[in-house]
Design goal:
By secondary structure, this protein is α+β, with helices and mostly antiparallel strands. It is 23% helix and 34% strand. The chain has three domains: 124 residues, Jelly Rolls (Sandwich); 70 residues; 132 residues, Immunoglobulin-like, CATH 2.60.40.1580. Helix 1 runs antiparallel to helix 3. It is elongated, with a radius of gyration of 30 Å. The termini are far apart. It binds copper (II) ion (CU). The site of copper (II) ion has 6 residues, from strand 8.
């Protein structure tokens, strides 16, 4: 008896320690980056081609509302290895919940549920954010695809000033009540967790000591399970079953009487419309593409036909949120775009004049910068599917922007070719 008593005390102590061990540990250190560069380059280059990303409000006070908005093109070169965007969602990649996402809209449609998007089309999104945790935060638009996971877009810094203690998120329900979503139901939620953890520990502990695992295993192996169950165990099992059902039913009825009017969680499908297809008089085909490993440059031979009426100049090549520009593109660059994602003068061409109407010309375009290495995009060369995709941006003489998606296999080159730029 005495030994059994000691074992019981030991078990109780063990349960106590285990409870402490499972207590959530709150991490207070701010995260500086969150591994966006480790996402495979084929995912970043060949799924979502982001453009016009805007981190509105570089600095926002606690409780104030700001926006993350932009556009994206779903690449025609969507990798075979990635699930097609049949169920998608626009989210925000941030170091913990520094903002509260009040809404995500794609083409003006609220995305409170996910929905399909079409490969080859462009979409416009806007995420409304309410500042919650002060600090200097790296914020990314994020495209989530069911069964493929989240695909991070370019990251920009957004500051939040003030004190977290001042944060309030009042919500008015359809029945006219107002509550703060920061604190609403918090005690009830945590309370239920601890209640069921305690019941679980009791259940495990009960069978742990009647008898202990090792003894039990040997008895089970030698004589089967019937001998291990004494009538008290059966009674305890029935008692716990009844107790659980009473608690669940009571909890449900209590919640139902407190909040009689509820709306079920929405589980339909958002129907979003892509941006209209605008006629693009410029046709661009990639005739050849290679990546110069020592030179850190992607070289493309583009066959460009201008079927329009205005001379048109290529100004930018963008992929994975990284932008390579020449003088034409640099002049159109949004000054708020994160400088660490821009290779100004990173785009060079052997034809540096506008392409005239009716003209078809082969242009050797080189996008060269250490960003290929820094952003780990060069890793495409280690893929069994060595391909790239991105957008070529050009401007007509009257200032209209034309966007051409491009994609092609990439040949790695380890030596500089004679005459290469
Ligand atoms: Cu980041």
């Amino acid at each position: 008896m005495n030994v059994k008593h000691v074992i019981k005390l030991w078990i109780l102590g063990f349960c106590g320690v285990a409870t402490l061990a499972f207590t959530p540990v709150f991490e207070a250190a701010p995260a500086l980056a969150h591994g966006e560069r480790s996402q495979e380059p084929f995912l970043r280059m060949r799924t979502v081609n982001w453009y016009d990303t805007e981190w509105v409000g570089k600095s926002t006070a606690i409780n104030d509302v700001t926006y993350l908005r932009g556009k994206f093109h779903l690449s025609e070169d969507w990798p075979r290895a990635v699930v097609k965007p049949h169920i998608t969602f626009i989210n925000v990649g941030s170091p913990s919940s520094v903002f509260v996402r009040l809404s995500s809209k794609v083409g003006g449609v609220p995305m409170f549920v996910a929905g399909p998007m079409e490969i080859g089309r462009d979409y416009e999104y806007e995420v409304t954010l309410k500042a919650r945790l002060p600090g200097h935060h790296h914020i990314h638009p994020m495209f989530s695809v069911k069964e493929a996971g989240p695909i991070a877009g370019p990251g920009g810094w957004m500051d939040i000033t003030g004190k977290h203690e001042d944060f309030r998120n009042p919500i008015k329900t359809l029945t006219g009540e107002t509550f703060d979503s920061e604190t609403m139901g918090g005690v009830t939620g945590v309370g239920w967790h601890f209640f069921w953890i305690a019941v679980g520990f009791f259940w495990v502990a009960w069978f742990m000591i009647r008898p202990m695992y090792l003894v039990r295993a040997r008895v089970l192996a030698a004589y089967g399970d019937e001998i291990l169950l004494d009538p008290i165990d059966r009674k305890m099992g029935i008692a716990v079953l009844i107790f659980t059902m009473v608690v669940v039913t009571g909890g449900y009825l209590a919640a139902e009487s407190k909040h009689p009017i509820t709306v079920p969680l929405q589980a339909g499908e958002a129907k979003v419309t892509p941006l209209p297809i605008t006629p693009n008089p410029l046709a661009i085909d990639v005739a050849h593409a290679e990546y110069d490993v020592p030179g850190r440059a992607l070289r493309m031979t583009l066959r460009v036909s201008n079927n329009g009426t205005e001379p048109t100049s290529i100004g930018e090549f963008t992929t994975a949120g990284i932008r390579f520009t020449n003088a034409v593109g640099a002049a159109k660059m949004d000054p708020n775009y994160p400088a660490e994602l821009v290779a100004l003068d990173g785009l060079t061409m052997d034809v540096n004049r506008p392409i005239e109407p009716g003209e078809t010309v082969d242009i050797h375009v080189e996008s060269k910068d250490v960003l290929w290495e820094v952003q780990r995009l060069v890793d495409i060369l280690h893929d069994p599917d060595q391909r790239f995709a991105g957008l070529v941006l050009s401007w007509t003489e009257s200032g209209e922007r034309l966007i051409n998606p491009v994609w092609a296999p990439v040949l790695p080159v380890f030596t500089r070719l004679a005459g290469g730029a």
